[in-house]
Amino acid sequence: MSNDGTIHARGIRKSFGYKTVLQNIDLDIACGEVCCIIGPSGSGKSTLLRCINGLETVDSGVLKVNGEDFGYYETDTAYHALSPKKVAAQRTRVGMVFQQFNLFPNMTAQENVMSGPVLVKGTHKKQAAERAQELLASVGLGAFGDRYPAQLSGGQQQRVAIARSLAMDPEIMLFDEPTSALDPEKVGEVLAVMQDLAKKGMTMVVVTHEMGFAREVSDTLLFMDEGVIVERGAPREVLANPKERRTQAFLKQVL
Ligand code: ADP
Ligand code: MG
């Protein structure tokens, strides 16, 4: 059976210097599953996403993404880094969208969406442009391909960023507080694109403060605090009946 679109972690640990940022993280995400992560600032949410897409390597533990050891592999005696080429290939299969949209300011929306396929995969420009146009249409921006980022609203820029990630045909999409930098009236249009993606069966891990989205769209909700997953479960259950004291305290503040 194919493990494409899955994430499997056992006992992940990650430190920066003496500070342990992730400890004992176990995670199983099935293909097509949507997992939302909530938790206070500094709890390790971004670091966990960055490990899952290879921007950081874990210190120890098992991490398999799309069924493959990610970033490194383990033998009886040691961890060995995978070759940079292998890591780069693995990373193309995991898309990531950040709070700050990180578009290339000197490229149009269409050029932004084309850039990955053309530069990384060597896709022919004409073909990449056609695909970019389709992807822009799918996020409601079919008429905006020739605009530069500065000519787009925050919500539009974030939708271009999502289209740009999708252009690499990832099996997994990671979102790190994708609506936190947006004006409130622009949040809905980005969440709608994400909900659409979820419906199409994309495996997604979403760090968010949007509890409505977590409740309606996610299959699993995780609450993290101080580098550990404190509580997890069906989103309605966790939000309505949090079992752990720390989850209760956090939800009291945000709901
Ligand atoms: P969150 O996304 O939940 O706010 P982060 O994963 O960004 O949390 O950070 C978790 C902790 O790790 C914080 O204490 C942060 O200061 C620390 N941290 C994150 N990245 C680095 C880094 N590159 N170097 C040192 N410390 C870091
Ligand atoms: Mg963060």
Automatic annotation (TrEMBL):
Coiled coil: none annotated. Its EC number is 7.4.2.1. It comes from the Bacteria. It holds the Pfam family ABC_tran. It catalyses: a polar amino acid(out) + ATP + H2O = a polar amino acid(in) + ADP + phosphate + H(+). Its main location: membrane. The keyword Membrane applies. It is found in: Cell membrane. One of its GO terms (cellular component) is plasma membrane. PROSITE patterns: ABC_TRANSPORTER_1, ABC_TRANSPORTER_2. The keyword Ligase does not apply. Residues 7-251 form the ABC transporter domain. Keywords: ATP-binding, Cell membrane, Membrane, Nucleotide-binding, Transport. It is a peripheral membrane protein. One of its GO terms (molecular function) is ATP hydrolysis activity. This is ABC-type polar-amino-acid transporter. It comes from Arthrobacter bambusae.
